[in-house]
Write a structure and sequence with these properties.
Pfam family, one: E1_dh
GO molecular function, one term: oxidoreductase activity, acting on the aldehyde or oxo group of donors, disulfide as acceptor
Distance between the termini: 61 Å
Order of helices and strands: HHHEHHEHEHEEEHEHEHHHH
Radius of gyration: 20 Å
Strand content: 5-15%
InterPro entries: Alpha-ketoacid_DH_E1_comp (IPR050771), DH_E1 (IPR001017), THDP-binding (IPR029061)
Number of helices: 13
Organism: Crotalaria pallida
Strand order of the largest sheet: 2-1-3-4-8-7
Shape: globular
Keywords: Oxidoreductase
Length: about 325
């Protein structure tokens, strides 16, 4: 048996562990919830090596975990200590790593670099389809025949706005087709389904020199419409029960949980059991709490860092301020 299923299970459980221990790690999770989109990013990331760039939003920490980014590095970023690669300049959970070719959220280089690298990935939320950048990017990618894979995480909500109030089209996938981008839907709560879809999409992108759009969607009007859902609140300050029924959330949590579904699959194959699951959960939780304790006690970056990494050649007025 390949070690990939067990490694993927550990990545999924690691992400869920962050979510389940949110009260203890409130600062670590700070503003964004992983919720039931957990299955998507590790499944997509394990198909490529670290040389491939991935442009992300803030719900793709699984890509970093798969590539070797440690819990300590996550904690350092969220506490903005001196070991934070962003030097305290980004919001918590806006991770980035040059070593792992993981571009920070909102980076202006994201779309441009995608067009000139073979099989790169760009993750984005379904609600972003209403922005001009989405349409421009798909059109540019199609016209330039860029070998890039766009992964749309359409989890049913834009904070408190449901998809029914965002668009009337058949999801996001038809928008890719309109621009001449080969597009497909996949069950975003099924790690195996997404793995298969991304594997096929990557082969197409590289061999055929063309962009591919993968949508993970919540709507289920058609047989091959994908199913994913934001089980958690949008942020730690959000109470989603104010705009959606609690029983709807619980129904998705019980019936479509991506981590539980993957665990059942590896158990049926005889690769996993409840004892191994319990040991893994306990170990990961201890590692997480230890990382938080360490990061919290590390000093902040030096004040001088605010003048670096912005200009190749700092202007005179910046020199004056530094002095």
């Amino acid at each position: 048996m390949s070690s990939t299923p067990l490694c993927l299970n550990q990545a999924l459980r690691n992400l869920r562990n962050l979510d389940e221990n949110r009260n203890a790690v409130l600062t670590l999770l700070s503003s964004r919830r992983l919720a039931s989109t957990t299955a998507q990013h590790p499944s997509a990331s394990n198909l490529v090596d670290d040389s491939y760039q991935t442009q992300n939003q803030y719900r793709e920490p699984g890509v970093l975990l798969w590539r070797g980014f440690t819990l300590q590095e996550f904690a350092n970023q969220c506490f903005s200590n001196k070991y934070d690669y962003g030097k305290g300049r980004q919001m918590p959970t806006h991770y980035g790593s040059k070593k792992h070719n993981y571009i920070t959220v909102a980076s202006t280089v994201a779309f441009i670099s995608s067009f000139y690298r073979r099989g790169n990935f760009h993750h984005f939320m379904g609600s972003e389809h209403g922005m001009g950048d989405f349409h421009a990017a798909l059109n540019f990618a199609a016209v330039l025949e860029a070998p890039v894979i766009f992964i749309c995480r359409n989890n049913g909500w834009a904070i408190s706005t449901p998809t029914s109030e965002q668009f009337r089209s058949d999801g996001i996938v038809v928008k890719g087709q309109a621009y001449g981008v080969r597009s497909i839907r996949v069950d975003g709560n099924d790690a195996l389904a997404l793995y298969s879809a991304v594997q096929t999409a990557r082969q197409m992108a590289i061999k055929e020199e063309r962009p591919i759009l993968i949508e993970t969607n919540v709507i289920s009007k058609f047989p091959f419409h994908a199913l994913t859902y934001r089980v958690g609140h949008h942020t730690t300050s959000d109470d989603s029960t104010k705009y959606r029924p609690a029983n709807e959330i619980e129904r998705w949590r019980l019936a479509r949980d991506p981590v539980a579904r993957f665990r059942k699959w590896i158990e049926r194959n005889g690769w996993w059991n409840s004892i191994a699951e319990s040991e893994l959960r306990s170990s990961l939780r201890q590692q997480l709490l230890h990382a938080i304790q360490v990061a919290e006690n590390v000093e902040k970056p030096p004040i001088e860092d605010i003048f670096s990494d912005v200009y190749d050649v700092p202007p005179s007025n910046l020199h004056e301020q530094e002095l």
